[in-house]
Amino acid sequence: MTSRKRTTYHHGDLRQAVLAAALDAIAADGPGALSLRDLARRAGVSHAAPAHHFGDRAGLLTAIAAQGFDLLADALAAGTSLADRGRRYVGFAAGHPAHFQVMFAPALLRDDDPALAAARERAAAALRAGLPDGASRATGIAAWSLAHGFATLYLTHNVDEAVGGLPPEEYFDALAGFLSDRER
Predict the structure, then answer these.
(1) pTM of the model
(2) What domains can you pick out in the chain, each with its CATH number?
């Protein structure tokens, strides 16, 4: 019996390398332009490697969304008030624009993915934790709408002139001033 030495290619953390390459591609061209073959080329791996880890494009985007919701939950958990959580939400969006784009594109995701559902719930719980005692669900949706709307306008460069050179979190503080007044 002849023994053949098998040569394997070791990339390190292939899953993370593919996720990082996907985030770069999404930041440059948006999630709609993402292809697994191009992603494999960017990550320097075989064209089958992304499919091995994620199944398909929807699986990859779902993994990115789950990772994003976990990162958002971590950012929000450090918030001390509703306004501060809104500020952190905007800071997350500005710091993770590719995640943010994918997280809120449900048509691109596997909605039944358990990791995505758990990460979404963590983020939602962190948002709800910032609500003052007795606040209605509508108050929470209004606060989320303000933070999400401003973050989206900021990322799509629709408020560049108004924001000027300010960090988006600082501009959001001015917008959210009424939230602090309502919490008292």
Answers:
(1) 0.87
(2) 10-55 (1.10.10), 57-183 (1.10.357.10)
